[in-house]
Specification:
Blueprint lengths: L2 H22 L2 H10 L3 H38 L3 H33 L1 H12 L24 H7 L1
Amino acid sequence: MKKSQWFVTGAFVMFLLPAMVLGQFGPRHDMKMEALDLSAEQQEQLESLAVEHHKEMIAARADLKIARLELQELLVSGVSEKKVNSQVNAVAEAEKAILQNRIAHQLAVREALGEEAFGTWMRMHHRGQCGNCGPGKHRGMQGRSGKMGGQGMRQGMQ
């Protein structure tokens, strides 16, 4: 990875990750914990799982963004279809890694909470009652437009 990419990634992790994680543990988080009626041990375990999941997803999303940018570079450069298809596979692998990470996290949460509490957690999670989740919070690079390569992506490629 280039030095500038390491600098940006490092700055992101140092300054924005703590804010994201602390944002997760705000008033909505407290309401969610109360609704789930979790033991102190379960709450600690859930918070630990969330922090680890966020760290892993930051890296996985960065890998996906880099793979997509490299694909765009290949398309513009006029390289062979074989090289482009190889990069398409790299993008697909990065997307697969994100999905696998998300599912592994959900399975770990299910194990920590038990079936009943996990069902409640999933319903709350997908209704947006946990702060950093719910409809529209897992858009990836779609942006607000809902289309692949949302406004920010198009501006960066011009």
